Amino acid sequence: MTVAKDISELGHLTRLGPNWPGKRCLAKTRKGTPCQRPAFKHNGRCSLHGGLSTGAKTTDGLKRISDASLKHGMYTKDKLEAQRHAAQVGRKVIGKLKKIVKTLENKS
Ligand SMILES: [Zn+2]
To answer: What's the pLDDT band for 51 if we cut at 50, 70, 90?
Structure first.
């Protein structure tokens, strides 16, 4: 039994118990109490409360994200605009052809 007690005393000073001297996260938890997890040095919050990334801000970063998420480019703004333009031109051509056919039918 004494062996188990000795093992339980190992690392007692470095455990994150109530008397741990390190810096705590102290973010407000869903329970309403301050978070007791150890805080990171760079932001003072734990891994749960560090907050999500706000994303890329620079144009280079935004372009990198856009390139990474682009799969085939069939539905980019440029392609969709080109498709709309081609459809509009096609409708105009079909309309003119129908007019020509009607005039030819009327003449004969
Ligand atoms: Zn926390």
So the answer is: low
- Report which of 36, 67, 61 is spatially closest to residue 49, judged by C-alpha positions: 36
Lookup: tokens for 90: 């096609």
Distance 7 CA to ligand 1 centre (A): 29
Long-range contacts of 22-31 (CB under 8 A, 24+ apart): 25/49
When pLDDT is averaged across residues 15-40 and rounded to a whole number, the result is 89
The Å distance, Cα 39 to ligand 1 centre, comes to: 7
pTM (predicted TM-score): 0.43
Ligand 1 centroid–CA 50 distance in Å is: 7
Whether 86 and 80 have beta carbons less than 8 Å apart is answered as no
